[in-house]
Amino acid sequence: MYSFVLRRALLALPTLLGVTLVVFATIKLIPGDPLTSLLGPAATPEARRELAERLGLHEPVPLQYLTWLRHAVAGDLGTSIARQRPVSEILAAALGNTLILAAAAFALAVAGGLALGAAGAAFPGRFPGRICDALSTVAVSAPQYAVALVLVVLAVGRLPTGGMHDAFDPGGVGDLLLHLVLPSAAAALVPMGLIARTARTVLADLLGGGLVEHLRACGLPERVVLAHAAHNAVPSLLTIGGLQLAYLVEGAVFVETVFSWPGLGSALFQALSQRDLPVVEAGVLAVAVCFVGVNLLVDTAHAAVDPRVRS
Predict the structure, then answer these.
(1) Fold (CATH) for 91-310
(2) What is the DSSP string of 126-173?
(3) What is the DSSP code (8-state) at residue 251?
(4) Which runs of consecutive H residues, i.e. helices, occur in the chain?
(5) Domains of the chain by residue range
(6) Residues 255-307: pLDDT tens digits?
(7) Angle at 95 between CA 93 and CA 97, to 5 degrees
């Protein structure tokens, strides 16, 4: 098991290195001049040259990349150009808020997806099953941004529609949970639909397959038969669930923007509008690390459940 995890971790390193290269090259290809956006169009050549030297922008691009990568590996993500604060401080708070939102949305997505999928597999072709299939299709197809806006309109005056806490009377955990209702529901919609469709397909195949028929022919109680079927469905559900968790960490930009949630998506959106390149580079790198880390955890859990994966 340890060798399997070690192999997966080593395979993740080239992926992260490729991500850093693509991110850095993409940032350099963005139209516009960061020096002009910081100093204004009327800046003198001396001021531009001084700022370029201070930010390291006067060096060749490959050397800029190697310098940035060396500092990033050492944990130094630089200083925000717009805020003049360490990037690590900005991203640490934003990433923590994103993880709170992702955890709440993931819990809703898993609970709703498994319920819809199990009902669809238990009642195939019947009214309850068709209703569950229709709901999962709607969840997958509904645009996340539009759903967030609709929730804001419907919840005005009933639930908080922005921020993490009440601006005038910040509360504790209860206030946070109240502010989590709308953004977590909007973020969980698409993952819930995908989990529901996967769970329905896997459970329907298992319940109609030879294993379940054999167990029933042996006279086992129905709860034992269902327990065996659910155990065999765990690897597929782990895979789709892990992918959706990674999606929630990296894909909550629209939701965080609509609901003014101070997470990583909002920080990246603001940094892009300000051409704050150190924050953008470090933020995308943080998203990539989270994505690779979640996939590593899913592979480890998959190997623990199914010994065939380890071999």
Answers:
(1) MetI-like fold (1.10.3720)
(2) SHHHHHHHHHHHHHHHS-HHHHHHHHHHHHTTTS--SSSS-SSS--SH
(3) S
(4) 2-29, 34-39, 45-55, 61-73, 87-122, 127-141, 144-155, 173-207, 210-217, 222-250, 253-258, 264-274, 277-305, 307-310
(5) 32-76, 91-310
(6) 888 888 888 888 888 887 777 778 888 888 888 888 888 877 877 777 777 66
(7) 70
